[in-house]
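Re: Re: ligand-bound prediction request (bumping)

Still looking for help on this. To restate: I need the protein modeled with flavin-adenine dinucleotide bound, output as structure tokens. Inputs repeated here so nobody has to scroll up.
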Amino acid sequence: MACDVLVIGAGITGIYQLHRAREAGFDVQLLEAGNGVGGTWYWNRYPGARFDSESYTYAYLFSPELFAEWEWQEHFAEQPETERYLNHVVDRFDLRRHIRFGEKVTSAEWDEASATWTVRTAGGAEHRARFVVAATGIFSVPYFPDVPGREDFRGESFHTASWPTTPVAFDGKRVAVIGTGSSGVQLIPAIAGQVESLTVYQRTPNWCTPLNNGPITAAEQAQLRADFEVMQATLNTSSHGFLHQPHDRATFDDSRDERWAFYEKMWNSPGFTKLTSNYTDLLLDPAANAEWCAFIAEKIRGIVDDPATAEQLIPRDHRFGEKRPPFVTGYYEAYNNPNVSLVDLQRTPIVRLTEDGIETADGVGRRFDIVVWATGFDFGTGALLRMGIRGRDGLALTDHWADGPRTFLGVQTAGFPNLFFPGGPHAAAGNNPRYNGDQVDFVTDALTYARDHGCDTIGATAEAEERWTAMVDKGAAMAPSFGECSYYFGTNIPGKPRKYLLNSGGRPKLFKEIARVLDTDYAAFTLSRSG
Ligand SMILES: Cc1cc2nc3c(=O)[nH]c(=O)nc-3n(C[C@H](O)[C@H](O)[C@H](O)COP(=O)(O)OP(=O)(O)OC[C@H]3O[C@@H](n4cnc5c(N)ncnc54)[C@H](O)[C@@H]3O)c2cc1C
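Reply:
Sorry for the wait, this slipped through. Here it is.
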């Protein structure tokens, strides 16, 4: 197959890229490793999987008609609804006929003479394209810790991020969940009431706060539609891509009573507001952060009946916001069920999996019917580095990024012309589709610019890449609250370079730099004609 633009990945970013590039008049095809549309919302179908972003702020905003016709059921939709929504979008905009499912890309090689990419898939297919847009996601490569005997376990085992399409029968089963990150803490309360026993293996606890979800009432549905344009304008310009407004006070501007009343308000507010609308110095002043954490610890002690379990659930190794904070429904309450128990892996690490269970360092062996790995992802660079990408002069991306990703705007890397990766490392942070969408809009503009100027190749210069990468690394080193203990820095993967994988300048820096590219007639890129 040959086309102008080959998109890889049918998640929310790739679908939008397919739509935008087609709209701009390109011949576009999309390859997807999975057998359906949705990306994150196709693979992560474990019980309890749902948004932490408000549904209507996560959805596409490019079509007022699409926005008006899709009625989200809940403020924070569950996975099946989001998967249905993305399928609806694909059909509504007649995109499905451009998508090939079950096509996992295993190599992509640049040919200078023809100014094209040759892309090969696991099934042996070969595709040629002038431009490749890898919308392969930052949470798309599940990670398994290196635990001896993982393959020996004879019961059923699942990773939350490659969940089967047929329901898993948990009823009356002895279940182990390994990991208490954002996925584990959604899954645990969703199955606790169903299983015979649930044993949670926790490496480090997280600062979990309530999601405060609820159905969207008819009046709210009407208001959302009436407010569409204002909401679109807010979301298109907000630094984090949410509707939440920042607070106007620092912690110690308020008395203790006022602070506790404010924390209570935060605790009862929806999702990410605890981060985006909290006191302005939450991430800047360690004392401010410590007090908010003390408030959450007090809540945990108030909810969890067993004091020893409560203490084990309180984080000691990081501040709020230093890792991605999970938002939960009934998580701490789940530990009050007599069939739920917690194993602290700091004290008693897993030694091995056996045929019928898990053995820990205290010599205890527990038997299970099902083991669930909620152990996260090779975040940021995982998918791109596994795709066999080779650019100019055969340069392998794995070599170019041996010390961590190097990008310009989080969309291109020098030496790999005509390859774009919106939604990859160095993008921004916050409500993902908003800044991934900014990147897709920019990529579409760049493709159009190259075509309209009669150019076959477009590639970020080494200087532009150096400038953006230095900005990311410098910003990450400066932020006082952000230690290097999270997947943001790749520290969950042994041996991975400790480099910040998001964009520490956030969406404002992205806007500024894109404006500069447009104002300077693409000076940060080299454009040329082949032949
Ligand atoms: C459980 C969970 C909940 C989340 N909740 C939120 C939230 O509330 N708010 C938020 O902003 N973000 C959330 N995220 C982050 C989420 O990943 C993004 O919001 C968004 O879905 C990313 O979309 P994407 O299209 O960029 O990537 P993905 O959705 O990851 O899609 C990438 C696609 O590329 C495909 N692919 C990868 N490699 C290859 C290859 N070699 N060949 C072919 N295909 C390939 C994958 O199969 C996948 O379908 C969540 C993530 C998870 C895991």
